[in-house]
Write a structure and sequence with these properties.
Layout lengths: L4 H15 L3 E5 L16 H4 L4 E3 L4 H13 L3 E5 L10 H6 L4 H4 L9 E6 L24 E3 L11 H11 L4 E6 L16 E8 L7 E8 L7 E5 L1 H18 L3 E6 L1 E3 L4 H10 L1 E9 L4 H13 L5 E7 L8 H7 L3 H15 L1
Parallel strand pairs: 1-2, 1-3, 3-4, 4-6, 5-6, 9-10, 9-12, 12-13
Antiparallel strand pairs: 5-11, 7-8, 8-10
């Protein structure tokens, strides 16, 4: 059975706990045999019983505790069971945790990683299905990461998580889309229809964050760039493949893993060639990641940017009914249809 994104993240957590006794894992219902709501923490409490700490249901309190642990030299990893509940720790995260290095003239570090699943498509309803990462993008002092489902060379979701836990000295919000968990890790062998270029967003001196650039192997020059992250990136990859082989519409896909601060250059390089870009995300469309990236591209490229489109969720709460959820959230066919329209306008 092929390893999944969940398997990779689990192994990354275990490897971080093994590598450094300062790493501690905290969260609700994370002890074995349950192993967490989505099982990313399974096996951790068995292997490291003294450093895996089950907690009360109090997200704001947990953020304060882990901030104190980080300030005292530990490397806490906090699991928030559903990303919707990050709103409960927003005060700690935005008004305190992200600011401590500035407030104390960089005399302290805060190696704190907050992991949480985001996203819908599982019928969990309006308070357990949201993609709220846009609320935290652009907060000074806070890094927001979203792993891709690729395992290429030394890069994988688990390695990104492990390196973040061990190497960061500032707070990180680590976003895991729920539908990514059971996706198989894609190696270069599984991506044989693509030329894959792995570029690196340098971040800071401690860690580099991969950007993946996928082009259809042997295809003509792409006419449209696509950028997406998390599960949306996998939908975009499937749409890219289908349109190339069935309709000869060729696109170039750029998948970032660091959403904030955002390194624009790999996307600028692609859109400089194509002139057109589609930005896909699962959060609501207004004032989100896609809107900010579109503005940055317009500033960087000027008249070279001929067309920019955004695809995202409708401006409503996420329904519990799966049939309505499908309408509300962007689907692969929506990506395909929008790319067809963009291609036709370019003809």
């Amino acid at each position: 059975m092929k390893p999944t994104v969940l398997d990779s993240l689990n192994q990354g957590l275990l490897a971080a706990l093994q590598a450094d006794p300062a790493v501690h894992l905290l969260g609700e219902d994370i002890l074995d045999p349950y192993g967490g709501a989505f099982k990313v923490t399974r096996g951790c409490s068995t292997a490291f019983p003294d450093r895996v700490i089950p907690t009360p249901i109090s997200e704001a309190g947990l953020a304060g505790v882990t901030a104190g642990m980080a300030l005292r030299g530990l490397k806490p990893v906090l699991e928030i069971m559903f990303g919707d509940f990050t709103t409960l720790l927003a005060d700690q995260l935005i008004n305190h945790i992200s600011k401590f290095r500035w407030m104390y003239n960089d005399s302290v570090s805060l190696p704190l990683v907050i992991r949480t699943p985001m996203g819908g498509r599982r019928g969990y309803g309006p308070t357990h299905s949201q993609s709220l990462e846009k609320l935290f993008l652009g907060v000074p002092g806070l890094t927001v990461l979203a792993p891709a489902n690729f395992s290429i060379g030394e890069d994988s979701p688990g390695r990104l998580l492990k390196n973040t836990i061990l190497n960061t000295d500032s707070p990180v919000l680590f976003i895991e889309n729920k539908l990514q968990y059971l996706q198989p890790l894609l190696t270069l062998e599984e991506l044989s229809d693509f030329d894959v270029d792995v570029r690196y967003d340098p971040g800071d001196t401690h860690q580099q964050f991969p950007f993946y650039v996928l082009r259809i192997k042997g295809a003509p020059q792409a006419s449209i760039s696509i950028s997406a992250y998390g599960y949306s990136a996998e939908m975009a990859r499937q749409a890219q493949l289908k349109l190339a082989f069935e309709e000869e519409i060729f696109c170039e896909l750029i998948v970032p893993t660091r959403l904030s601060p955002f390194a624009l250059q790999p996307l600028v390089d692609s859109v400089s060639r194509t002139g057109r870009v589609l930005l896909v995300e699962e959060g609501t469309r207004s004032l989100g990641w896609g809107a900010e990236v579109a503005a940055l591209l317009a500033e960087a490229l000027g008249d070279k940017l001929k067309q920019v489109k955004r695809l995202a969720a409708l401006e409503t709460p996420v329904p519990a009914a799966v049939s309505l959820e499908k309408v509300m959230l962007p689907q692969q066919e929506d990506i395909e249809n929008l790319l067809r329209k963009m291609s036709a306008q370019n003809a």
